[in-house]
Amino acid sequence: MPLKAETRDKLMGVSTATLCTALFKRGLRNQFIQDVHPVNAQRDPKTPNMVGEAFTLRYIPAREDLNPITVFQDRAHPQRKAVETCPPGAVFVIDSRKDPRAASAGSILVTRLMKRGVAGIVTDGGFRDSPEIAQLAIPAYHHRPSAPTNLTLHQALDIDVPIGCGDVAVWPGDVVVGDGEGVVVIPAAIADEIAAEAVEMTAFEDFVTEKVNQGRSILGLYPPTDDKSRDEFAAWRKERGR
Amino acid sequence: MPLKAETRDKLMGVSTATLCTALFKRGLRNQFIQDVHPVNAQRDPKTPNMVGEAFTLRYIPAREDLNPITVFQDRAHPQRKAVETCPPGAVFVIDSRKDPRAASAGSILVTRLMKRGVAGIVTDGGFRDSPEIAQLAIPAYHHRPSAPTNLTLHQALDIDVPIGCGDVAVWPGDVVVGDGEGVVVIPAAIADEIAAEAVEMTAFEDFVTEKVNQGRSILGLYPPTDDKSRDEFAAWRKERGR
Amino acid sequence: MPLKAETRDKLMGVSTATLCTALFKRGLRNQFIQDVHPVNAQRDPKTPNMVGEAFTLRYIPAREDLNPITVFQDRAHPQRKAVETCPPGAVFVIDSRKDPRAASAGSILVTRLMKRGVAGIVTDGGFRDSPEIAQLAIPAYHHRPSAPTNLTLHQALDIDVPIGCGDVAVWPGDVVVGDGEGVVVIPAAIADEIAAEAVEMTAFEDFVTEKVNQGRSILGLYPPTDDKSRDEFAAWRKERGR
Amino acid sequence: MPLKAETRDKLMGVSTATLCTALFKRGLRNQFIQDVHPVNAQRDPKTPNMVGEAFTLRYIPAREDLNPITVFQDRAHPQRKAVETCPPGAVFVIDSRKDPRAASAGSILVTRLMKRGVAGIVTDGGFRDSPEIAQLAIPAYHHRPSAPTNLTLHQALDIDVPIGCGDVAVWPGDVVVGDGEGVVVIPAAIADEIAAEAVEMTAFEDFVTEKVNQGRSILGLYPPTDDKSRDEFAAWRKERGR
Amino acid sequence: MPLKAETRDKLMGVSTATLCTALFKRGLRNQFIQDVHPVNAQRDPKTPNMVGEAFTLRYIPAREDLNPITVFQDRAHPQRKAVETCPPGAVFVIDSRKDPRAASAGSILVTRLMKRGVAGIVTDGGFRDSPEIAQLAIPAYHHRPSAPTNLTLHQALDIDVPIGCGDVAVWPGDVVVGDGEGVVVIPAAIADEIAAEAVEMTAFEDFVTEKVNQGRSILGLYPPTDDKSRDEFAAWRKERGR
Amino acid sequence: MPLKAETRDKLMGVSTATLCTALFKRGLRNQFIQDVHPVNAQRDPKTPNMVGEAFTLRYIPAREDLNPITVFQDRAHPQRKAVETCPPGAVFVIDSRKDPRAASAGSILVTRLMKRGVAGIVTDGGFRDSPEIAQLAIPAYHHRPSAPTNLTLHQALDIDVPIGCGDVAVWPGDVVVGDGEGVVVIPAAIADEIAAEAVEMTAFEDFVTEKVNQGRSILGLYPPTDDKSRDEFAAWRKERGR
């Protein structure tokens, strides 16, 4: 069940906050990756969202004897192999066990992902070369910068298995969306309906924001418990064609 | 004992660091809200301070059965009611138990506060829609962005009661001041004297900074244990009319 | 064994990430100061690195009776004395026991260090007046902003002794390097060889980045297990004169 | 809706683990007070549970000028008043904001609660005089021992209001149950049904434990997906009269 | 390469501290599972060690829709299957992502492991029914008690794959040793030599302890830089037959 | 100003909680070492307190090349030297930077301290061989057990300098008192008066406890705002000869 282009487009233009509410309504309370932020803090708020299906990489703690610098000479090393096999359009999500004391990856690997058409990269640890990554044309999310090579504390192990990232379950194929606030994970089976609902909610939130900016009280408007609010919204939609 | 316009003006132009020192001299060592930051990280350092009397909202942990999405249909829901009743010129301070895993509020409520003339908003949790909030013309302070709806973890309970925020006691009516560094809470009863003293200290710090930039040692100057330093400062004040 | 001008120059232009890898190869896995960041978040990524020999200041917890505001009237107070005696070109490193709840120093002291030609300042606590410090022409690194005066929680004790900073051992004379990512500590005895190796590694990384940006796979290139990659790099170096 | 004697009796003999499962089945996932332990680590595992309705006390951070040692001379001080008004049979629950750096209460107050017939005491901070409290004939639960007087960091404020304790919502009248593992909070409205269900579950768990101790596999037994398991359990109950 | 009976016997009688030193000498600095403790705090210090090869279970965060209480009706559920397939003599090690807010397992499963001859159980989360587990004749190690069912936060996923536990890499077949202090993980390939060396070291430590108890200084004795110390130890060994 | 035998005796019989209150009355709010516990959890509550003057040892983070296992062959290694020079009757206090991931010391060194007549040992890290230490006739306090050798993370550096331990300033010669609850640090200059006051307070607390056990309310009794309470206490003291 690949991600539909239409769904991807919808998810480009709604916020992670709105998506979290749509998920909350379905009993999914824990889909926002905790304490993970855009590497690029100066990110333009109008940048479209990162959207793609999750392609995962699992790290375990590194044992010193298994992780000399020479391990990367192996073309089958899972970190390197994952970078070369992540499908274009996917989001590369790393389980770093929330440990940012050593890097999850650096700018060369992230550049390669960018060139391969990958939609973004997320770790619950930290990236090295973060100032360079912040300038790349690929969204990247982490906890905080971390210069030590990943061999210091992380050993790449599994490719595209279910993982935890920032206390959230990430199953391969889940739809991952990132904006200026952070990253949310949508179960694949409900991505279409969540996207559709979020577009509706966004229209309403835009309407409400406009009204509030005009001086309206939120009572009766947000949520629209007054008939008047609902009528006005209907008119507003018609007028805007949304 | 409402906040005097004159005191408000003074507090607009002094730093939270200077205020903390003035409070420290009176034995108040714990008035700086810990680990709370401006939502707008690109904030212009010349922006005037957020200043206002504390108007508080208390959250407790949310219990699932008491917090379906429908609770906001109640016009008396404390979060919504607080937003509509916070006095213009006040600072809206939320006790989120230092838990940023779900939002304390989002951009629509913060916009409404802005339109109502509220001076600023502070939480020891996180805001959702934080990229939008960062662009609003109202100062907002939190721990970190948080997309999940506040019902996920927070239940609004009490309006304008004494609370804790970032390990600081906040009593309704305390004077809350925020700059680019963070937020300090001044007990209402001493706001005038603290403001006056901080203005004096700021003049001296500006003088010292000027001298240090001219190459002067801090010894004897900061603090001014040399007579010469005190004389120079007196002359400097006269010259600047401060 | 003072820091050679040539070594300083080399260290100006390599990243902390590259330095960490060079240290890792020598069995030094723990030289990156954890969770310490540039005060100036809008720092231009092209700014040259902070480089200098460590000059240290050790804080212990403050006891209330020993730390009234008047202690700074003593010209021999270790914090003030350290600021006046730190050698030009050195990096001033403070052991704040990873406690950012009160300030390690403020803008006047940092300005004085700048005027004295000190190369930078690092604490594993927080600075006060951080918005002002962010604008100064001296690199400063901390955990987070902290307005309370340092007397609130810190007592300056020892000057230029071995300390811990962000879980890293810092020995006086170690070479401290900071970039947009953070701060790394290089043992004095190997600073020259680490600098030389990092320059070599940087040339190779620049080559790899260029190739990856041209669409090349990392396999066989990074690390250069293919002969072709090694040959191309040799040609690239000759061409660039690196 | 006071706690029925029959419900209290049932809750005396079931575990907090079983109660958590019964609550989980009703969508209540967050009723176990996190990181709170019996003060008496040598507690006999056969001790009956602590059971009673929640009577709460809310602390906020202490401000130095409001909390000299003399505040306790006021008979209406909320901490002292709460101790004298907590109903016999209730559980006294304190919101200490998960801060154990100063005490929530000490042995004299806990002794007084014991003499007044209170069923137990819980804080998400720490008790002082904890070695004495461990010897008292009243169950007490905290995070860890803490000798500093509560005025150091806590100010008692509200009596019998909804609070948070260890990340759990505690509403006055909720039924609080503690065993050797910790403390669970049952919403008042469902206490009877939860108690009844837990008694049933406990009978089944006792049956399963007996069978497992006899060498039986858990497959088909726990849960009892095999008809045989269900039949055996029915026979076991009849035999034991449970 | 199954664990030799002789090696198992040796590991029964040496401490985790001694094993950590033997591992440290080989460059393995990170083999002690952090912050994991015997469930039975009253454990007799003379109890023989837990020793066995690691058999692992990996948890990821639970998603609500995938983890209703009914999942255990599936005989192939990885948690239940793992309990029934863990080899006798092995140590069952669970990766709970250091999250003790919900249980890793409870007394029925631990009893079943005990009956199946499993050597012990370790989690970096918490057990429920911990007072019962403390009484069982099988060693169990966790971070702290945790009553909520594991479905609340954990989803069992993989059986006998490499995992992290308490920041340590655990590979299936590694030799896991637990004493009253905690748990250490020995890479399978060096278990024999580490065991042999630890037995030697233990003899020496017993000798030193005896001497120190007789009033001897540690200088020259520990380590035995004096010839006399080495001679005495040789005599002591001969005398004791060790 | 050595510790008077009389003061030592007084401090043997009062609680750390009472001492904290006496210190609080003098404005010293931060003298209780945070999160440090008796190694011997089964400690008899009637054991007399640990009392002695602080003799300190300072650790910094270990750098791998400076801390091979061979460093202990140096008789002047600060850890070993400190153990041999700590005065009998003193309390050995280690600044482990609150890092228990590797040991601060083990049973052989603690045994040596015991034999040398040292009054106790405290670290804000962890001890290895903790089950053995728990059985020794010397009080020992730490955060939690930790088997890895201290060279893994700690380098002993300074002997008998001012340090931080569990967020408390410890100056050589300060009087350190430990009971079943934890450890408090009394500035040397006020040890006599604090001891005297604590003895008085303890008499009163014993009186209050007796009355409360007889059923008396705490109001008017604790503190003794009623004349009657004060009279009764005077009579009680006379009767008991206290």
Quick check: average pLDDT of chain A? 97
Q: Largest protein interface?
A: A-B, 34 and 34 residues
Backbone CA Rg of chain A: 20 Å
Order of helices and strands of chain A: HHEEHEEHEEHEEEEEEHH
- Count the beta strands of chain A: 12
How would the global form of chain A be characterised?
Answer: elongated
Oligomeric state of the chains in view:
homohexamer
Number of helices of chain A: 7
SSE-based structural type of chain A? alpha/beta
**Major beta-sheet overview of chain A:** 8 strands, mixed
Strand content of chain A: 15-25%
Low-confidence stretches of chain A: none
Helix fraction of chain A, binned, reads 25-40%
Distance between the termini of chain A: 28 Å
How is this fold's topology laid out?
Six copies of one chain form a homohexamer.
Chain A: H1 5-12, H2 16-25, E1 37-38, E2 50-61, H3 78-85, E3 91-95, E4 103-105, H4 107-115, E5 120-123, E6 126-127, H5 130-133, E7 140-142, E8 154-159, E9 163-165, E10 168-170, E11 175-178, E12 183-186, H6 191-213, H7 227-240
Parallel strand pairs in A: 2-3, 3-5, 4-6, 5-7
Antiparallel strand pairs in A: 1-7, 2-8, 2-11, 9-10, 11-12
